[in-house]
Amino acid sequence: MTLSNLAAGNFIFSLYSEDNNGNRSSLVSFPLSLTQGAITNVTGIFIAPTILADKSEVRRGDTITLFGQSVPKSDIIITVHSDQSYFGTTISDKGGVYLYNFDSSILDYGSHSAQSKAMIGNQLVSGLSPAVNFQVGTKNVAATKAATCGSIGDLNCDNRVNLVDFSIMAYWYQRTLSANGLKADLNHDNKVNLTDFSILASRWTG
Amino acid sequence: MYLQRPFFIACALVLLSPTTAVAATISVHATPANIGVGDLVRVDVLLDSAISTNAFSGSLRYSSATLEPVAISDGNSIVGMWITRPSVTSADAPITFAGITPGGFSGDNGILFSILFKAKGAGTATISFQDIEVLRNDGVGGNEPTTIQPLALGIWPESFGGYAEPADQTPPEYFIALLDTDPQLFGGKAYLVFTAVDKGSGIAHYAVAESRLPSFLFSLFPLSWNEAAMSPYAIADQNLTSAVYIKAVDRAGNGRLSVFPPQHLFTGYEKTVLLAILIVFVFSAWIWQRRRTGKSL
Fold it and tell me: Which residues does UniProt assign to the signal peptide (chain B) (predicted)?
């Protein structure tokens, strides 16, 4: 990938990948200072895997399948966040697809989330994937196709978290919230402040 | 055994003591370091952060008896979007700022923004911060403990030459505008959002113009620029039949134009009129054809 005609100065570059199902990885960002007329090569960028769950709610004791895509034949480390974290490992296939069946019997009832990261030869380690949330309850509920509309930060439901969402949130910044403004209150503390912008920035898709 | 016991206790104290390392530091750096009355000095507001952070806010205070803010530049800033863009409002008002960096920043000497001060009195000028918030890029906006490093800047009675701003002949970076509507913004009218970056002197302002005319006619019918426009911008032509020209101008006067194309060729009214004209034309042609061939209506 080549970028040209950039002015000299400090930049922050962000990259993400999209798997063949249209699911996005989290952003990988790095600052870089560019000099006029010079070529700067950047290597060693390892983008995090994508991740999905087959259920939005799993009956306690059943398995929930966590899957996604990464680099072919890489070690995938799955982390399930609960009161304590549980780890599992698997290997992506030659197409980069990975799948891990997690036994939910060790989890309490309630909300949990899972993330994954990839590793090649114990040397190159990616960042963490976005978190996929699920419930442990009394029934199994299949996850629907990730409708990004309504996902955290997507205030105008265009399946992106970008400048438009920033603009809507900026409108509500430090204002009294009314019905439509509540969607900008991402941490549900009844105000739109810097914390909500931080959450928005962490979900940025561009 | 007597020698080993204190050693063990010392090790245990080290291991059990809370981690006191601070992950973020906000500091200021003055260029040049030596200035005199009448000199310009550039003060960079810097962030060091060991872990990824993505939101920053606070206010900067300075000795108004010895320093006068002249301009603010975000040219090399790590901040991608400003919620509150730092600006000079009055001679002694604090400079407040709030902004975000999508994807986060970690590293040393990340410039948040730079202020150009003019030294107006000899003595020691202090530059400090209040209400600093640095939030982690962790998805929940966790607060990052931050150390503040204020600056005491000595100002001599005689001039040293001061800071010379480099010439900026590079226009702002290419940028695009995005269209949206929201019931709460501009009463549900269509609006554009945009943001540009200039790595030299920094963005000074935006100007916006709308026109349905093709650009080759602009020499006859010049664009009427709204020089005080800012993002979000409510489009005047809500039929979205006009191209919207957005110009980002840096502090050196270099401009970069971005054109948001018209979304429709005609308004609803124009479509109705055109359809009526078309119907009349077809009907007239049909009548003419009937008469020409001698057929009765």
Answer: 1-23
pLDDT digits (tens, 9 = 90+) for A170-196: 888 888 888 778 889 999 898 999 999
Please give the backbone phi and psi of residue A104, each rounded to the nearest 5 degrees, phi first: -80, 0
Q: Report which of residues A18 and B3 the model is more confident about.
A: A18
Instruction: Say which residues have a Cβ less than 8 Å from residue B254's Cβ, sequence separation at least 6.
Output: B168, B169, B170, B171, B172, B198, B200
Q: Which residues on chain A are in Cβ contact (under 8 Å) with B184?
A: 168, 171-172, 178, 180-181
Put simply, whether the predicted model's pTM sits higher than 0.80 gets the answer no
Say what angle helices A194-202 and A163-172 make with each other, to 10 degrees. Answer: 170
- Cβ atoms of B8 and B17 closer than 8 Å: no
Which fold, A147-206? Answer: Type 1 dockerin domain (1.10.1330)
∠A199-B54-A6 over CA atoms, to 5°?
125
Q: Beta strands A55-59 and A132-137: pairing type? A: parallel
CA-nearest of A149, A80, A72, A75 to A113 is A80
- Reported as a single tens digit per residue, the pLDDT across B207-262 is 999 999 998 999 999 999 999 999 999 999 999 999 999 999 999 999 999 999 99
Picking from A198, A203, A204 by the largest number of B CB atoms within 10 A of its own CB, the best residue to mutate is: A198
Q: How far apart are the first and last CA of chain A?
A: 18
Check: complex ipTM more than 0.90: no
Amino acid identity of B132?
Answer: I
Contact A131, A25 (CB under 8 A): no
CA B117 – CA B71 distance, rounded (Å): 7
Domain covering A52-142, topology: Immunoglobulin-like (2.60.40)
Q: Which helix (H) or strand (E) holds B133?
A: strand B123-136
Topology of domain B23-156, CATH = Immunoglobulin-like (2.60.40)
Residues A24 and A68: beta-carbon distance below 8 Å: no
pLDDT tens for residues A94-139? 999 999 999 999 999 999 999 999 999 888 899 888 888 899 999 9
Could you give the CA distance from residue A51 to residue A98 in angstroms, rounded to a whole number?
A: 9
Domain-wise residue ranges, chain B: 23-156, 177-265, 273-297
What lies within 8 Å, CB to CB, of A24 at 6+ separation is A16, A17, A18, A50, A130, A205
Q: How far apart are CA B134 and CA B126, in angstroms?
A: 22
Q: Are A91 and A75 a contacting pair, CB within 8 Å?
A: yes
Return d(Cα A109, Cα B16) in angstroms, integer. 34
Window 29-68 of A: residues touching B by CB (8 A cutoff) are 29, 31
Q: What is the DSSP string of B186-218?
A: EEEEEEEEE----SSS-EEEEEEEEESS-GGGT
Please check whether residue B117 is in contact with residue B32, taking contact to mean a CB–CB distance below 8 angstroms: no
